[in-house]
Protein: Adenosylmethionine-8-amino-7-oxononanoate aminotransferase
Amino acid sequence: MHPHLWYPFTAAKTAPTPLKVKAGQGVWLELDNGQRILDCISSWWVNLHGHSHPAIAAAIAHQAQTLEHVIFAGFSHDPAEQLAEKLVQKLPGDLNRVFFSDNGSTAVEVALKMAYQYWHNQGQARSTFLAFEGAYHGDTFGAMAVGARSLFNAAFDTLMFAVDTVPFPATFQGDETVAEQERQSLAAIATQIDQAPHAYAALILEPLVQGAGGMRMCRPEFVAQVVQCCRERGVLVIFDEVMTGFGRTGDWFACLKAGVQPDLICLSKGLTGGFLPLSVTVATETIYQGFYSDEPQKTLYHGHSYTANPLGCAAALASWDLTTAAEPQFQALAALHHQGLARLRHHKGVTQCRVMGTIAAFNWVTDQPGYLNQWGQWIRQQAIAQGLLLRPLGNVLYVLPPYCITAAELSQVYDGIDKILAQAPDF
Ligand SMILES: *Cc1c(COP(=O)(O)O)cnc(C)c1O
Structure:
């Protein structure tokens, strides 16, 4: 470990020394010992078009020589305006007010504050939120509060506001219980809201795929029914598409795939193609109008120093064009994932295979589920030896590659996983 660095999500005393990366190109990372590693997880799910993509690099360089940053209160600029226009055009319905911040957690904080204050501005004190079991929405306090209570946030338990939760109907290929699970989940939402019709400011959901919770997938119809259930009961809906945005689920956004419009949507990870930290919270016109007033106390008093950073916006605009060009990959990768998973199914530990657009996952049968299980740690180490960057979530192994990965490279990924699984000891 470097003597002056504190690494994220890292138990420094027991973790292996971080691998030093010298360069990245396409799906490949090059370590300083010369080894090449295929980035199967898009570096924590942010990279869409490969590392060091020249078009995004050039857009950032050009913007840096024009206007690197300016305060975004009282001032505006082209990159932010153009990006907002593109987002609004692509997002469904009247999701047309774009608020910038810096990462997924802040995008969620902003959505929670918008939903909460929207009611407050109308003289309604709605005291809490509805969320899904197993959810992950980020590491700041509000985002932690609406996420699942876990090892990650146990130390802060008493500081987090209380949230009511409902079950998430996670499904997989060959699952026969999904319809019943969905029915129970929808019934739980309806019951919770009906018991306290004015208690909930909003329901927050990772639509189609719960990411950090273990790449748990649900059906598009379920997402649509959740929105309908909340709308009928006057509860706002927040889609946390920080991970699912920009093609990940097979369409530009999970809300488009499910054919529904939330009241607020949070986007971040893929926004700049993985180059710079940037996020947006996009609100409907109705929400925006709830703040549009002569009374100063109705303003959303929230902002960050680097709000709408022009370099980030320029990267996002360049990434936008590349994403448009990569649209055929959203579906093509799904087909390749299905083939790849089919090759792994003969391992007796492989269970609950699932694919959603560009994301594939399965569970490994183990006696010790949970984030800290030995199998996941072992896979990480073995993967590096095979030239793969894999990072299981507990006993869940997933592949979430940049869209520029070739069929041959993805095949190589599944070959590597196949080899690793063949040597897996019992955990
Ligand atoms: C990663 C993630 C976040 C948090 O984003 P950060 O940029 O890490 O703060 C929030 N929600 C979801 C669904 C995520 O996957």
